Amino acid sequence: MVGWTMVEVMIAVMPFHGHVAPLAAVAEAFLTAGHGVRVYTGAAHADRFATLGARVVTWESAPDFDEHNVPATFPELRGKKGPRQMLTNVEQLFVRTGADQAADLTRAYAEQAWDVIVADGLSMGARFASELTDTPWVTVSIVPLAIPSRDLPPPILGLSPARGLAGRLRDSVLRAVTRAATRGIQRAYSEERERAGLPLRGFPLDQAFISPELVCASGVAELEYPRSDLATQVVFVGELTRPRASDAALPSWWPDAESSESPIVHVTQGTLNVDPHDLIEPAFAALGRQRVLLVAATGRADDAGLPFPAPPNARVAGFIPYDALLPRLDVMITNGGWGGVLAALARGIPLIVAGGDLDKPEIAARVAWAGAGVNLRTGRPRPRAILAAWRRVTADDSYRANAKRLAESLGGHDGPREVVEHTMALLARRRAPEPGG
């Protein structure tokens, strides 16, 4: 971009593996383009960004935590699943840390000013820091858009768009119910704004995680429900992380995958809620007698063992490099992490999605709506539901055809590079003189 040779960028990342991976790709793209990059995240992920060449600012005023034991820092989350977990998670972890995140960020700004803050879409601290420093803020949405719409049900329920008058009435009622259910979050947001020294009449809660100038949304328009009121600052950028040649060791059983004459079905528990009883165990029960090779990832590199026996046709590891695995897959059974879902769809792999909590029911619903997979409508499916879904996906060619259609659309993007380009265009617009000025 003419006139911008180098800028100083602050990237704010919530300290979860699923957030760190896409924002690390964005940080690398800014560094490759020659810009100065600092990253604000948890201490556990500092090395990931330092290795890229970024300078790291860790959570200090904000309560840093272990993503594998979040209740140790936020005890309010203990024992909660489903919608209750989502509401408590948003309030305690994302909203009530906002003022403390902003304190960390504004100290970093005082030490060296940034030109723009590029943030994980769930970083409340970035919103507050942008207001406090009067600097531009770019949202990078690493999950499906959660922007409310008059045309859609509330974005936390995993429901597809309504059809007809009765459906629209349903969505209207649900929007009212959701407003009531989220009063605690709204109260927390007001209290955090006050703690941060910001006016209470600032941006309302439904705009709190959305930059008013630029939202770079991972995914493609074909995975977004049609709506008449989509914010004009939203741009779709495709995948933010793409599997590439990895130095990670392949499991000792990998030759079985390379030589398998049976279709390979991958079962992934994700990296956050990793109880193998939720999805891996019923998937083994469903497909343990079928002519497939089951390849399961527990999401724990430090503990790949299972508390139950694996069937003879199953192979298990903590993590498996996707650059090696994905080209061999026939079907993926997933808990619905957005990064893994996009990785599979970008290679035309149909999905079976068991989305149980947080954003995952919404992801499962979108995959089914796009015709690229089956939504099991629970995070703890029964074996017979998984078996029926697998039979549907393998017997009906439309699932694979729709996955390939989405792969073509995703293949037209270079997400990290596009985030850099859109950010630089925003800064150029801000620099441009007013007409007639």
Automatic annotation (TrEMBL):
Every Erythromycin biosynthesis protein CIII-like C-terminal domain range: 310-426
Domain of life: Bacteria
SUPFAM superfamilies the UniProt entry points to: UDP-Glycosyltransferase/glycogen phosphorylase (SSF53756)
Matching InterPro entries: EryCIII-like_C, Glycosyltransferase_28, UDP_glucos_trans
PANTHER family named in the record: STEROL 3-BETA-GLUCOSYLTRANSFERASE, STEROL 3-BETA-GLUCOSYLTRANSFERASE UGT80A2
Protein name from the UniProt record: Glycosyltransferase
